[in-house]
Amino acid sequence: MSEDACDPSVSDAEVDRCFSPISDVKAVALGVSGGSDSMALLRLFAEWVARNGWNGSGLVLTVDHGLRDESRAEARFVADVSAKLGFEHRTLSWDGIKPASNVQAMAREARYQLFAVEMAKSNAEVLLLGHHQDDQVETFLDRLTRGSGIYGLSAMASESALPSSKARIFRPFLEFPKQRLIASLLERDQNWCEDPSNEKSAYKRVRLRKLAQDLSTEGLDLKRLTKTAERLRRAAAAIDQWVAAFMDEYLRSHAAGPVCLPFSTFSELPEEVRLRALARLVQRVGAQDYSPRLVKLEALDQSLRVSNEHKATLATCVFHKQGGKLFVWREMGREPPETLELTGELSPIWDGRYILTGSPHAFGEERFLGPLGLFPGRQRDLGFAWPTDWPREAFDAAPAVWSEDGLHFVPGLLEDTLGAHYNCAQVLRHS
Length: 431
Description:
Blueprint: H1 12-19, E1 27-31, H2 36-52, E2 57-64, H3 71-85, E3 88-93, H4 103-122, E4 126-128, H5 133-145, E5 159-161, E6 168-170, H6 178-187, H7 204-217, H8 222-250, E7 252-253, E8 259-262, H9 263-267, H10 271-286, H11 294-305, E9 310-314, E10 317-322, E11 325-330, E12 340-342, E13 349-350, E14 354-358, E15 367-371, E16 399-403, E17 406-410, E18 414-415, E19 422-426
Parallel strand pairs: 1-2, 1-4, 2-3, 4-6
Antiparallel strand pairs: 5-6, 7-8, 8-11, 9-10, 10-11, 12-15, 13-14, 14-19, 15-16, 16-17, 17-18
Helix pairs in contact: 1-2, 2-6, 5-7, 5-8, 8-10, 10-11
């Protein structure tokens, strides 16, 4: 700890307002590295719990990335503070070979994956993170250098989906600059850990942080940059509402996965709305947590508009323009959805797209869940008639349950006397 604070600390009233959206949540996890931001999150959350009588459970999670010698000691430090505050603590390890480049981004992705797995074990509904106003500005500048559009430049959302999870991320401190969080720690004589990588100019985030300081001297300070990002987020929300209304009216979905919409109506949308609609289709049909890069969406949109018949792939999805319709389905590709042997009472998320419930051993035989296109007996009579208004290949990656006796269940296509014991619900997502 080596900082002086001139800014005021975060008041109790501000803390109460920040955490009020989770007052009805029963179980949360806190991502705490030991740095100033996350330690402020831990201390202020503990005070909010005590002050408001919140009766949920809080689990503190620290990820040891194995990138620095100090990381293990930092995890122990967080564990000690957590115990004193009355919270359970767990240290998670990022194992395996570490990347030679893009380390911070890869570490962040690994961190979220570890959080998702541990939260599922504990039934935690919300992940609390200590992101603040300075992080907003660094993200804005980073995405500006990448040529991002309105969505990439939008303000970081206070609430968002946790990748590969049913849980949500909640960031209560986005309105506060980092110095106010530090002031709160100093006021409480609370130590924190300094990560030396935060000062290494080899990392882009560090260079952007220094750039933000230079811009501030020219009048483009944290507040103005944050306000710009917030206004872009407001515009993005309006486009999202437009896209949602369009999808509700025109999108046709099959229970087995593919979707379609009238291309002429789609093509009449403004370009920015079309691009967002394509992104949402990728996330929905391909079970993607994130939208594809804007340049790829622009290329797809252009290719669909220049010919009457066209087929293209993007991020595990096939886009097929045919007969005045745009069909979208999950592609088989080089990495088709996995085939699972069903064991015991189940509710697995398959291919990130479906939750299967039922009793696979109700009839005492081996059952498998996999893509219809890989069903071993697909060359014989499948027990259903193919829909005439959908391309047949649109169902290759559809979820199917089979055994040695044949095909038993495909949502929307087949439900025999055995398949009737299954139910498949789609997992719909977007960022």
